[in-house]
Write a structure and sequence with these properties.
The protein is α/β, with parallel strands linked by helices. Helix content is about 30%, strand content about 20%. It starts with 5 loop residues before the first strand and ends with a helix.
């Protein structure tokens, strides 16, 4: 069946222990640690979020990865976009799940990569200023080594392409010194390796006029959130008082009321792909310094999905891409994996809307 859009879901491979997290936060720390300890911070606050079908999985297990892929495929998601951490100097983090997907050939679900080029900080435990592993850019030799690693993925038959070119995203393009030169260098290496080139997308977080072409990129994807400014509705007076007394910055917005903010309102003259957000609530990580989009439901997400599909409807089938943030970012509240409250509700919206 012909789909109305290509839905590619961001995938967080942080659900397994790593030495860096063990040392910093205690033996066995994963994102589930935050999810399980979360508590409601105001009346009707939906916390904790408890997984249903897939449980509290460990991504070192191939059975867990296979179950995720089967579920995603069942509901029409084209593939996963794995967060990829190359910190510079060959250092990588939370790489095991994707490395095993690549080496084993399983699961047989399409994928691409997003270079999450930011320092590994205490954000996982509500301490974003605490640097555990710093993102560095040692120079062109390191960019060459990075590309040689990526080439193993780019040449996998499961790798997602656009115009026949491997699709690769960069989380913070403006952090890369002389990015135009680096992107040209990578394209040259891709051609020499027998690829048709690369299709490079940069994430522009809050800048409507951010032009990917000025960075040597093919397109952009704008992920937008409302400001974290301590805004709390009048319905939660005790929470407002507590936040002010403790000098915190908890911000609460109605998901329904900010839906128009999440997608571009005006067309741009470069290729731009929409990003849909099923929900957002990072209080499991950040507590009273978190940001909450309150009251998300599958029905409201349906409205959001329809607008995103409308934005790509006039494009060729190849470019009808919508990024979903995310498949499994549980401690940020943006996930579509089944939970005990909504079950398969968000997945059913995706399936129904892309089938038309």
């Amino acid at each position: 069946m012909k789909k109305r859009a290509r839905v590619i879901a961001y995938y967080l491979p942080q659900f397994h222990p790593i030495p860096e997290n063990d040392k910093q936060w205690g033996e066995g720390f994963t994102e589930w640690t935050n999810v399980a300890k979360a508590k409601p911070l105001f009346h009707s606050h939906y916390q904790p979020h408890i997984p249903a079908d897939l449980g509290f999985y460990d991504l070192r297990l191939p059975e867990a990865r296979a179950a995720q892929a089967e579920l995603a495929s069942q509901y029409g998601i084209e593939g996963f976009c794995y967060y990829h951490y190359w910190m510079g100097g060959g250092q990588r983090l939370i790489e095991r799940p994707f490395d095993e997907v690549l080496q084993s050939g399983e699961p047989n679900l399409p994928f691409c990569l997003c270079w999450a080029n930011h320092s590994w900080t205490g954000i996982w435990f509500g301490a974003p200023d605490q640097v555990i592993a710093e993102q560095t850019y040692p120079g062109m030799d390191d960019h060459a080594a990075h590309f040689q690693y990526l080439l193993k993925a780019f040449t996998d038959e499961r790798y997602i392409t656009v115009d026949g070119k491997p699709l690769f995203l960069i989380w913070k393009p403006d952090s890369i010194p002389d990015i135009n030169h680096v992107m040209d260098f990578w394209r040259e290496l891709a051609i020499k390796a027998g690829l048709k080139g690369l299709y490079l997308i940069g994430i522009s977080h809050f800048a409507p006029s951010w032009d990917p072409r000025e960075r040597g990129l093919d397109a952009c994807m704008m992920q937008k959130l409302p400001p974290k400014n301590g805004s709390i509705p009048w319905q939660y007076p005790l929470t407002r008082l507590k936040v002010r007394l403790e000098k915190k910055s908890l911000s609460i917005y109605s998901y329904e009321e900010i839906l128009d903010l999440l997608l571009r309102k005006k067309p741009v003259d470069f290729m731009d792909y929409p990003c849909v957000l099923p929900n957002w609530d990072n209080t499991p990580r950040s507590g009273l310094n978190g940001l909450v989009l309150h009251g998300s439901t599958p029905d409201l997400f349906r409205t959001h999905m329809r607008k995103a599909i409308d934005q790509v409807a006039s494009r060729s089938e190849e470019h009808r891409i919508i990024f979903l943030k995310a498949w499994n970012e549980w401690a940020e509240g943006n996930y579509v994996e089944p939970d005990l409250k909504f079950g398969h509700g968000y997945l059913e919206v995706i399936r129904d809307e892309i089938q038309g």
